[in-house]
Amino acid sequence: MNPANSSLFNCIVNKGAIEKTDALNLYTKIWKSINENASERTFEQLGEAISTINSKISKFDQKIVEIEYELPEAEGTYLAFVSCTESSIDKLQTFWTQAEVELFRLMIRKFMAQDECCSSIIQCMNLAPEIKVQTITKAKVEEAIRKWINLGYFYEMDEKLYFGPRLIAEFSTSLLTQFKDQVDICDICKAIVFWGPRCGSCEEVFHKICIQKYLDRIQSCPTCKGAFGLTEQSD
């Protein structure tokens, strides 16, 4: 792996997830630090770099994936660093303490029980007494949450926590398996969807990018075939 790609990889790993345009600007900055006469990088060159990186890290069951993140005010295309070994949260025990893994699991369960699929840091800190595998203080809980925000697992907005792009990219299979009666599935791409436009006729929810592309071709709901009258974000 050349020095520029190595630096890009380390930056994405440290952030967990990064918006694609920010990644491109970062990649250009890296190249200019190596050669001040280097030209601006393009999205095509960024894509080639990611492909090269993935070819090197695949033997470690790791990958950088592209994900369309649709949380209002934070939506965009992100690059997320994920483990490909399996989708179980249990695999995190390799890197985190037992208490952190249990906290992570409890937070996901709490989020999935909420209509808005979110929670506050205070509410998550109050989960400390429910962790039985190890004693953990509220201060340590907050420290773990801050770490996960920085790693792209959660996104903080307006004093609330939401699933971050890395968590969605890495644990969608687990969420679909464990919460199949609580999650929405985009009827176009068949992937999990948390925030997106709902059909005004049947209330089906879709990824914004999926329904936009669909409606460019067919002016009706792909599920009920009725008029797609609303574009409001679902909570």
Automatic annotation (TrEMBL):
GO CC list: nucleus; Smc5-Smc6 complex
Substrates-to-products reaction catalysed: S-ubiquitinyl-[E2 ubiquitin-conjugating enzyme]-L-cysteine + [acceptor protein]-L-lysine = [E2 ubiquitin-conjugating enzyme]-L-cysteine + N(6)-ubiquitinyl-[acceptor protein]-L-lysine
SUPFAM superfamilies assigned to the protein according to its UniProt record, in alphabetical order: RING/U-box
InterPro entries in the cross-refs: Nse1, Nse1_RING_C4HC3-type, WH-like_DNA-bd_sf, Znf_RING, Znf_RING/FYVE/PHD
Start and end residues of each RING-type domain: 186-225
Enzyme class: transferase
Domain of life: Eukaryota
GO molecular function, one term: zinc ion binding
Key words, A-Z: DNA damage, DNA recombination, DNA repair, Metal-binding, Nucleus, Transferase, Ubl conjugation pathway, Zinc, Zinc-finger
UniProt-listed GO biological process terms: double-strand break repair via homologous recombination
Entry-linked Pfam families: SMC_Nse1 (PF07574), zf-RING-like (PF08746)
Subcellular location: Nucleus
EC number in record: 2.3.2.27
Main localization (coarse): nucleus
Membership in a protein family: Belongs to the NSE1 family.
Self-association state and partner proteins as the record states: Component of the Smc5-Smc6 complex.
Protein name according to UniProt: Non-structural maintenance of chromosomes element 1 homolog
Organism from which the protein derives: Culicoides sonorensis
